[in-house]
Amino acid sequence: MEEIKEQEIDLEKVYDYVEFPDKVSGRCDNCNSAYFKSSVKGGVFLRECRECGMKKSI
After folding, report:
1. Which of 25, 38, 49, 55 shows its CA 20 to 30 Å from the CA of 12?
2. Per-residue model confidence (pLDDT) at position 7
């Protein structure tokens, strides 16, 4: 498993929460914002940061 801390975060990619949990719970790994928009499609919960656009599948 590669460390997300040492690599640059790709804002186009959807990260899996199981593989890349939050560094700080409830905060974006990229910009440390706690402001998200979320959606559910096809049974997949997707969380997107409203500041930088980083996405995680929960």
Report:
1. 25
2. 65
Q: What is the pLDDT of residue 25?
A: 93
Q: Token pair for residue 16?
A: 């899996």
Kindly give the pairing relationship between strand 14-16 and strand 36-41: unpaired
Residues 6 or more apart in contact with residue 28 via CB below 8 angstroms: 22, 34, 36, 49, 51, 52, 54
DSSP notation for 1-58: ---TTTS---TTSEEETTTS--SSTTS-TTT----EEEEEETTEEEEEETTT--EEE-
